[in-house]
Design a protein that fits this description.
It is built from 2 helices and no strands. The chain is mostly helical and about 100 residues long.
Length: about 100
């Protein structure tokens, strides 16, 4: 006999998987967007820094004038992302961002 009075149908399971996948996809999409934005900021800052350095003549350029770069330090739990290769292809992440 069946355990439990409410059997889970294949349709129920597929629906649940679909919801879970779209949730994961959205989260990773948001993450990728945020990382992209941060890298773009860094690129801009580095480029600006290089452009500013180009304004100096080598002789009278004083290294002490350049300000140290301040990085925010955050405690981040290490996460194993080795499974992402398969996850990405499953969810179609990475081939253009078509997430909401």
């Amino acid at each position: 006999g069946m355990r439990g009075s409410t059997p889970a149908t294949v349709k129920d399971c597929k629906e649940q998987i679909r919801v879970t996948n779209s949730l994961i996809k959205r989260c990773f999409g948001d993450l990728y967007d945020e990382l992209d934005e941060k890298f773009q900021q860094m690129r801009t800052e580095i480029q600006n820094s290089l452009d500013n350095d180009a304004d100096y003549d080598d002789e009278d350029y004083d290294m002490t004038q350049s300000l140290p770069v301040q990085f925010e330090v955050m405690d981040v739990e290490p996460v194993d992302l080795s499974h992402l290769g398969t996850l990405n292809s499953t969810l179609g992440i990475g081939q253009g961002s078509s997430h909401q």
